[in-house]
Structure formats: structure tokens, C-alpha cells
Amino acid sequence: MSKIEVPVMADLAAQGKKPEYLYWVGCAGAFDDRYQKVTRSFTKILNHCKVDYAVLGKEESCTGDPAKRAGNEMLFQMQALQNIEVLNGYEVKKIVCTCPHCYNILKNEYGELGGNYEVVHYTTFLENLMDEGKLNVEKSSFKNKKVTYHDPCYLGRGNKIYDAPRNLIKTMDVDLVEMKRSKSKALCCGAGGAQMFKEAEKGDKEIYEERTEDVLESKAEIVATACPFCMTMLTDGIKFKDKQEEVKNLDIAEMIADSLGL
Predict the structure, then answer these.
(1) CA angle 8, 12, 17 (to 5 degrees)
(2) Are 221 and 246 in contact (CB under 8 A)?
(3) How many CA atoms, within 13 angstroms, populate the side-chain half-sphere of residue 258?
(4) Per the count of CB atoms within 10 A, which of 95, 113, 255, 257 is most buried?
């Protein structure tokens, strides 16, 4: 695996530099083996586009989203205030996130605790780079592939971001097909709201199984995702249905990086 140069905020601060963007990696992006691949893909794109950014590295902690969603407001505030102290210490103004859960809480719930930042999800960020002519997918690795896109709850219904992910996918000359439940009517993957970390409740079927059936019904060869929770649940669903040979689950950042030959 080739080494990727990733600037760290503390190192740049020691040189008297302030990068324009902080890339908030998130817990999954840092620790989950599968989502680390997405982190690498996105940083390759940032480097390719010569974006002025840095990461916090070891200074980054959990945003507190799982704690808040599980009802532990005290723990959330402790985690958030610690992060805000670090962010404000570096005078961070703009943050880009790969995780919709990190994006949502940093954008919408840190402000009341003194953390006011311009927060953008990576799909919107990359679409803006394309609009500015800084990012061009000239040769797609997925040309004519049948692709469907799963809307993450915290990106779609939570923050009304539906077009940017789809526009990125369309730049790769794919056959984009919608599931029967999409956009504002999309079905949750089953992991949000801290459900990822608790035992399943009584019922006839897991939510990820139901959502995977929507994916399979679309006849897509690839289900594109833009959230670590969704990636985990849909990958599990595809394995549960024993369809690993027929359907691949890829993050949009992975698809773009691959098409750019990064």
C-alpha cells in the first residue's frame, strides 16, 4: 500500500500555518478497517486537487453523536466541549466530514456550546470542486455499470442533501437507478440513532435486511454509499443474502478515487 501524505494540524501550527479546511476523519474513518479505505480515498482526492487541509490526528476525539442519540447528554457535552476547545485553539473555521453523523452534529449541535464552524459533507465539497473545475473524472472505472445510491438519513432527510451525491455518481458515466424508496422516502440502514451499538429488538426482520432487499430489487451491480454506518449495514445485508459476487458496496469517494487512478 502506497504511503499517503496527510498534513497534521499541530505540525502546521508549529510552522505558523493555518490550513483552510480541517478534515474531520471520524471514529469509523480512523478505526474501522473497511472505512479506513474511504478515508484513504478521500485524502488522495484532497491531495490530487491540492486542497489546503489538515487533520487533527491523535487530537481528534468522538464528536459525541452516539452518546447524544443514546440519551447521554452529559457525556455528549463533555466530548463536544473537549473537541471545541481543540478546534477553537487552532482557530478552525471550515470543516469537511466524510461521516454524515459527524457532519450533522458539528454543523447543527455544536453551535450552542460555542463551536461555530462552516461544516460541509464531502459529497457537497467534491461537487463544488467539480463546479470550480478543480476535479474532473475523465475516465470512469464504472462506465455503464448499473449503480444505485442509498441515502443516509443524516445526510438526506436530516440535512436535505440529495443531489450532490447523485451528481458525483453521474459524472462516472454509470446507469444510475433509484430504489423504490429513495431521497426523502429512503429507508434507514438500521444503524443510526446509536442503534449500531445495541442489541436487536424483537421483530421479524432486521432493518438492514429490508433495505438490502430494496438494493437487490433495483438489479444494481453497485450500491453507492456515503456514510460509514450505511456501509457496514449494507455490507452485512449483502453477505446475509449471499450476494457478494453480484453486488458490491462502494463509497462514492472510493469510486471517484478509483476513476482518477489514485
Answers:
(1) 140
(2) yes
(3) 14
(4) 255
25 grid coordinates: 476523519
Contact 60, 25 (CB under 8 A): yes
CB contact at 8 A, 57 and 8? yes
Helix axes 122-131, 252-259, angle to 10 degrees: 30
pLDDT in tens, 148-198: 999 999 999 999 999 999 999 999 999 999 999 999 999 998 766 556 555
* Dist. CA 212–CA 22, nearest whole Å: 34
User: Which residue ranges form the domains of the chain, and what is each CATH number?
Assistant: 9-129 (3.40.50.1860), 137-259 (3.40.50)
Strands of the sheet containing 118-121, edge to edge, are 53-54, 21-24, 94-97, 118-121
pTM of the model: 0.93
**Residue 174: all three cell numbers together:** 454509470
- Residue 36 DSSP one-character state: H
Handedness of CA 18, 10, 3, 106 (dihedral sign): negative
- CA 65, 224, 159 angle in degrees (round to 5)? 40
